[in-house]
């Protein structure tokens, strides 16, 4: 339903998730987090979906947590301690779902991506942003250090750049975000959807089984030391090589013809 807080449209192996609360700049409210968790879980189990695009409706990608909702949590007898702990746990779980999904997830970013919204961009596998987009982890400006967004941010950016953003609350431009590794590409605003769809289609055209194997290995090896990473990825390469579609892909390359993939396995 197009009036849903989170819409999902699937075509040609690409699922487009749209955070649909534009009047509030698509905050990661309790309802939005629940919707994202349910939809990401459903997509992860859908072999027909090969790539996911995550975007925001209206004039912004995502402005982070819903501060009014958070403040309402203070009415509890414990001043909100249990609610806040649960909120950040739920948000962290959603962020961890994205790299754990078998499909690559591309953030399509415009307007602003702030605090947990910037965390969401950093959690995605790739990101394309419109010129003029601003990124920030600006909670420190209102007295709340963005400690949970820091987890994703420090796994994308150089340490000093990440700390500067966290401790100053300053925004960075899309061009700077690309320079420091937060996003992949910057395009004119009018070309954002087309450019993101082109990237998604390019990835969707690869052998799905190989991409799933590769994405899993990508995140697994990052957490390992060098020798363990090589041992692990060597075993992954064996797994990949034994796929019948990989055999077909290599034969097709050697025979100078398009591969006849079954996209199974």
From TrEMBL:
Keywords: Fatty acid metabolism, Lipid metabolism, Transit peptide. GO terms for molecular function: hydro-lyase activity. It holds the Pfam family ECH_1. One of its GO terms (biological process) is fatty acid metabolic process. Gene3D superfamilies: 2-enoyl-CoA Hydratase, Chain A, domain 1, Lyase 2-enoyl-coa Hydratase, Chain A, domain 2. The keyword Cell membrane does not apply. The keyword Lipid metabolism applies. Transmembrane segments: none annotated. Coiled coil: none annotated. InterPro entries: ClpP/crotonase-like_dom_sf (IPR029045), Enoyl-CoA_hydra/iso (IPR001753), Enoyl-CoA_hydra_C (IPR014748), Mitochondrial_ECH-domain (IPR052377). May play a role in fatty acid biosynthesis and insulin sensitivity. Belongs to the enoyl-CoA hydratase/isomerase family. PANTHER family: ENOYL-COA HYDRATASE DOMAIN-CONTAINING PROTEIN 3, MITOCHONDRIAL, PTHR43602. This is Enoyl-CoA hydratase domain-containing protein 3, mitochondrial. It comes from Roseicitreum antarcticum.
